[in-house]
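Sequence design from tokenized structure. All designs in this work follow the same two-part layout: the structure record, then the generated sequence. An example of the structure record is given first.
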């Protein structure tokens, strides 16, 4: 989301763009919206654990997920909640066509937090988008680092 904002506000500074599990606008089903609202009422560590567990794709080693939960739970609640509010307010979907640099969009097939269909919706506005969907969840860089690196290498090697 930050990279898209940079490309829109300072287009001359961006030569290529890589978006990993990103979208142009947060959209929720009614059930997801209610879940997000209710999440502010539960203890913070429970909120973190629930969101992290659902962020990983199926079959990711449980011990790695638990390790990531412990590390993430040390982030202050106000920081996490401020980030969630910023994500909910983020909206560049209608401006996507203004980004004219080659853009690689890599997304986890099993990303339930920012579903693939939301990334595809964003991609339709881009002038030069290359799309790759990998067998991962929202934590794609942790789940499939080799696959992500290979896709990045190919994209960055393009003339």
């Amino acid at each position: 989301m930050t990279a898209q904002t940079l490309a829109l506000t300072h287009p001359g500074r961006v030569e290529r763009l890589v978006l990993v599990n990103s979208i142009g606008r947060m959209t929720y089903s009614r059930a997801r919206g209610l879940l997000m609202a209710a999440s502010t009422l539960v203890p913070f560590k429970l909120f973190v654990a629930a969101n992290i567990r659902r962020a990983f794709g199926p079959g990711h080693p449980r011990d790695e997920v638990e390790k990531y939960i412990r590390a993430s739970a040390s982030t202050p609640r106000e920081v996490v909640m401020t980030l969630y509010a910023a994500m909910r307010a983020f909206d560049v979907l209608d401006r996507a066509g203004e980004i004219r640099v080659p853009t690689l969009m890599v997304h986890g097939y099993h990303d339930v937090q920012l579903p693939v269909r939301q990334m595809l919706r964003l991609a339709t506005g881009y002038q030069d988008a290359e799309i790759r969907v990998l067998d991962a969840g929202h934590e794609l860089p942790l789940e499939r680092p080799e696959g992500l690196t290979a896709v990045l290498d190919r994209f960055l090697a393009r003339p």
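The longest helix spans residues 77-89. We note this feature because it recurs in several other targets discussed in the main text.
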